[in-house]
Write a structure and sequence with these properties.
Keywords: Membrane, Transmembrane, Transmembrane helix. The chain is mostly helical. Helices cover 62% and strands 0% of the residues. It contains five helices and no strands. The chain starts with 15 loop residues before the first helix and ends with a helix.
Length: 151
């Protein structure tokens, strides 16, 4: 019997994108799955706290109070956007312009739903609150784009 032609195994060169998503790629030694789980847990925990905090009836305290409400909205939504962007990166996605815009859209949609549902819980729905949310989301997206710019 004569041997047939030798067959060589196909050589597959992984692309950088597939290496970043593959557990056997360069992230294997850094415990990236564990850090992804921590960031996802932090995101879920914060988002839950934000939801609960914005749906507790607003206590009217007697006397003069300083109104930091809009700053609190901007800060809370900047943190939520930042956590969502970090969680995306840690799970293998690398948001560029469209990814950042998708994250911003998701958070702003949540902010709108949050405002619309607040009257059911004895709170007020305020367009200015949502605009403060928009400011916080925008700040987080701009800072994220600046931090992860390509040199």
């Amino acid at each position: 019997m004569t041997p047939g032609p030798a067959t060589l195994p196909a050589v597959v060169t992984p692309s950088p994108a597939s290496e970043a998503l593959d557990a056997s790629g360069p992230r294997e030694g850094r415990g990236w799955r564990k850090t992804a789980a921590y960031w996802l847990a932090a995101l879920v925990f914060y988002w839950l706290l934000l939801f609960i905090g914005t749906h507790i009836p607003d206590p009217q305290l007697p006397g003069p109070t300083l109104d930091y409400d809009k700053f609190m909205h901007a800060g809370a939504y900047a943190v939520l956007t930042t956590l969502l962007l970090i969680a995306c990166r840690r799970t293998g996605a690398s948001p560029r312009l469209w990814g950042r815009l998708a994250v911003a859209g998701l958070v702003l949609l949540y902010g709108a739903i949050d405002e619309v549902t607040q009257p059911y819980f004895g709170r007020s729905c305020d367009l200015l609150d949502w605009l403060a949310d928009l400011a916080g989301v925008s700040l987080a997206v701009v800072v994220d784009a600046w931090r992860h710019r390509r040199g």
